[in-house]
């Protein structure tokens, strides 16, 4: 059987301030008519992905993107072709989206998609859209447990929705008590997702929302742990590839800048960070010496968001 042709496609995730995004329904006469998808289309010869994105949004919806950042790149095989989908998050645009091709439009949220059927290649993207842009990490070993819990309460009240408990030096009994307390805080009207670093057995015992694998675990495991959410720590191309093979939900890539926890360790910088992320299919949190003000530059270089320990 001959190899299927590779079709380069650019896809726009139009995101409003309330985190809702736009889906469009393919009109009659097109392949997969009646299926819902994110707007976009083929990259024409001589176009860059950004140029193709602007053209497609104008042709389909009559808008011009102001703010578009690279996000994920995924391969998907249809019976007629293999498509390489370059997803961009578009958070600002000129004009109001209107159906220029007689397609239906619907604003949706990742946890409540009410239209169907979805184009198969777009279904995995919904889970990635559930992830917030900030990933908080605990550091009770430095601040003390009480100060850490106070900081966590304040973070939850300020809107943090994803937290990793990373307390490798904490004694097991104390750790379980600490984890239980954090989980109670997270579930007390905050709807925060809590992952436990490294300790799969404890995460399953206390029914945490998931696990964050160390890079050592990532390279040694042969299957993804049985948890709802699974993240992984990566520092190089080998670990990024393994995370993709294992099917984790997202990764952290570090260190972007020098950090207090790893003094003297070489840092990536944004140029190397963006090279490692080129054509990568999973959401990536930039980690290492970052502050909330670094979110925009991280996303410009392909990150889903930023992860912070002291910066939180």
UniProtKB/TrEMBL annotation:
Enzyme class: hydrolase
CDD domains: NUDIX_MutT_NudA_like (cd03425), TMP_TenI (cd00564)
GO biological process: DNA repair; DNA replication; thiamine biosynthetic process
Nudix hydrolase domain span: 5-132
Catalytic activity of the protein: 8-oxo-dGTP + H2O = 8-oxo-dGMP + diphosphate + H(+); 8-oxo-GTP + H2O = 8-oxo-GMP + diphosphate + H(+)
Domain of life of the source: Bacteria
EC number(s) stated in the UniProt entry for this protein: 3.6.1.55
Keywords attached to this entry: DNA damage, DNA repair, DNA replication, Hydrolase, Magnesium, Metal-binding, Mutator protein
Keyword check for Metal-binding: yes
Cofactor(s), names only, from the UniProt record: Mg(2+)
InterPro entries named in the record: Aldolase_TIM, MutT-like, Nudix_hydrolase, NUDIX_hydrolase-like_dom_sf, NUDIX_hydrolase_CS, NUDIX_hydrolase_dom, ThiamineP_synth_sf, ThiamineP_synth_TenI
GO-annotated molecular function: 8-oxo-7,8-dihydrodeoxyguanosine triphosphate pyrophosphatase activity; 8-oxo-7,8-dihydroguanosine triphosphate pyrophosphatase activity; 8-oxo-dGDP phosphatase activity; 8-oxo-GDP phosphatase activity; metal ion binding
Gene3D superfamilies: Aldolase class I, Nucleoside Triphosphate Pyrophosphohydrolase
Family stated for the protein in its record: Belongs to the Nudix hydrolase family.
Protein name: 8-oxo-dGTP diphosphatase
Organism: Nitrosomonas eutropha (strain DSM 101675 / C91 / Nm57)
């Amino acid at each position: 059987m001959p190899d299927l042709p590779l079709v380069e496609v650019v896809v726009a995730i139009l995101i409003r301030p309330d985190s809702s995004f736009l889906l469009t329904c393919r009109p009659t006469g097109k392949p997969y008519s009646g299926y819902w998808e994110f707007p976009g289309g083929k990259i024409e010869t001589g176009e860059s992905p950004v140029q193709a994105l602007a053209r497609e949004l104008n042709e389909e919806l009559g808008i011009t993107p102001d703010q578009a950042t690279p996000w994920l790149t995924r391969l998907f095989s249809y019976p007629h072709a293999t498509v390489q989908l370059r997803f961009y998050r578009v958070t600002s645009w000129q004009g109001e989206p209107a159906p220029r091709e007689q397609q239906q439009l619907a604003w949706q949220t990742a946890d409540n998609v009410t239209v169907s059927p979805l184009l198969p290649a777009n279904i995995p993207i919904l889970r990635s859209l559930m992830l917030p842009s900030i990933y908080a990490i605990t550091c009770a070993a430095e601040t003390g447990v009480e100060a850490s819990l106070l900081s966590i309460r304040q973070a939850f009240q300020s809107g943090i929705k994803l937290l990793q408990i990373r307390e490798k030096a904490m004694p097991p009994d104390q750790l379980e008590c600490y984890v239980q307390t954090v989980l109670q805080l997270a579930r007390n009207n905050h709807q925060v997702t809590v992952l436990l670093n490294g300790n799969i057995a404890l995460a399953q015992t206390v029914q945490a929302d998931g696990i964050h694998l160390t890079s050592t675990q990532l390279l040694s495991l042969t299957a993804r742990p049985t948890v709802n959410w699974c993240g992984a720590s990566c520092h190089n191309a080998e670990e990024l590839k393994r995370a993709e093979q294992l099917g984790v939900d997202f990764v952290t890539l570090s260190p972007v800048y020098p950090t207090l926890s790893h003094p003297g360790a070489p840092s990536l910088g944004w140029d190397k960070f963006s090279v490692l992320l080129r054509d990568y299919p999973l959401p990536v949190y930039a980690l290492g010496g970052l502050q909330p003000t670094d979110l925009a530059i991280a996303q410009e270089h392909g990150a889903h968001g930023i992860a912070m320990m002291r910066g939180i």
